Amino acid sequence: MRAADDQGPAQAAQKLFDAMRAHDRAAVSALFIPGSTVASVDADSKVSVMPAEDFAMRVGNGKGDWLERIWNTQVLEHGSIAVVWAEYDFHLNRKFSHCGIDSFSMLKTASGWKIAGVSDTREVSGCRPRPLGPPTQ
């Protein structure tokens, strides 16, 4: 296990959140391996899965100020494969939207760490205390 502040897979996950906040479709697409998926499960166990390219399009067409923050990040890494797991919250226009767990499957390529798949839970209530407090920017 690596410390969360090390460079590597966790930094690739953070780059996704930065690209989402900028609504940068090209940057989001560049972070994923072709054929990757984004999967979510809500509090009612409803599962949704979409190709990462569709997710990138949604990000690019998105409106408003998106802010996703992670903490309690854990990274399991062996050679060119890693898993990043973290608690998160998501704010839209500086207002809380939902929280949950992000889980990234990562592969190290010649151009660095890429996302092979993302899964998350989406919870609107019952969220654990968020150590980062309300968004400040």
Number of domains: 1
Strand content: over 45%
**Lateral arrangement of strands in the main beta sheet:** 2-1-6-5-4-3
Question: For the residues shown, what is the average pLDDT?
Answer: 92
Helix content: 10-25%
Just name the CATH architecture. Roll
Which residues sit in consecutive blocks of at least 5 with pLDDT less than 50? Answer: 1-6
**Distinct helical segment count:** 3
What does the overall shape look like? Answer: globular
Largest sheet: 6 strands, mixed
CATH level-1 class: Alpha Beta
CATH-derived topology: Nuclear Transport Factor 2, Chain: A
The strand count comes to 6
Taking all Cα atoms into account, the compactness measure Rg is: 14 Å
One letter per element, helices H and strands E, the order comes to HHEEHEEEE
Structural class by helix and strand composition: alpha+beta
The termini sit apart by 31 Å
Describe the overall structure:
With 137 residues, this protein is an alpha+beta fold. It has one domain: Roll (Nuclear Transport Factor 2, Chain: A). The chain has three helices and six strands; from the N terminus they run H-H-E-E-H-E-E-E-E. It has a six-stranded mixed beta sheet. A hairpin with a 2-residue loop joins strand 5 and strand 6. The protein is globular, with a radius of gyration of 14 Å. The chain starts with 8 loop residues before the first helix and ends in a 15-residue tail after the last strand. The N terminus is likely disordered.
